[in-house]
Amino acid sequence: MNSKRGRIDRFLASRLQIPSRQAQQLIRQGEVLLNGTAATQVDIIINEFTRIECQGQLLQALEPAYWMLHKPAGVVSATTDAEQQTVLSLLPEIAQTQQLHIAGRLDKYTTGLLLLTNDSRWSEAIAQPSASKRKHYRVTLQNPLTEDYVNAFRDGFYFEFENITTAPAELTIVSDYVADVVLTEGKYHQIKRMFGRFRNPVVALHRYQIGQIELDDSLPEGQARVLTADEIASVG
């Protein structure tokens, strides 16, 4: 069991495959250490980063980890895949042991900023549709852009299949065939579908910023680095 949040007695019962009463007895006997201190209550709430020892056996010792990856095209946003290369395979060996998950996926052929962590609360904060977690994309189109796109993206698009209207999005025309788009949500293939309303295929899609975290200009495609303390703290 990889704990997120839950009672220590339930964690022990599941992890050690013992009855709940036996787990509670171990706690009351002082046999369970949480972050180096003996647990005193059976209902203490733990999370995935609580260091847990029982009778000298280390049961959990996961440290928080936060990574930035410059995702190349052709790699899937998954931790495992039987047939295709995954973004996790691009990370340094140390990251392979950190139980990482992806905070905001990109489709196979989209490039740019991808964040990975083992901190579920941190990744959930990224997913919240708030102004501080805006996602920035550079989009290259097959056909020229006009000012009509700006208004349409601001007004939102109705997607019949899901019966939803997209939240207002910012579109800035960079050149005839290139635009910057800022979203506060992440519907399925949202950007491609919005441009599809203009029958204008997306040639290339690149994410360069999430909230206050910008893709490191010095990070080559396929490479990753640990986030700085300021970058981590910006998500909250």
Automatic annotation (TrEMBL):
Catalysed reactions, as listed in the record: uridine(516) in 16S rRNA = pseudouridine(516) in 16S rRNA
Record-linked SUPFAM superfamilies: Alpha-L RNA-binding motif, Pseudouridine synthase
PROSITE patterns per UniProt: PSI_RSU (PS01149), S4 (PS50889)
EC number(s) from the headed UniProt entry: 5.4.99.-
Signal sequence coordinates: none
CDD domains reported in the protein's UniProt record: PseudoU_synth_RsuA, S4
Family: Belongs to the pseudouridine synthase RsuA family.
Role summary: Responsible for synthesis of pseudouridine from uracil-516 in 16S ribosomal RNA.
Name assigned to this protein: Pseudouridine synthase
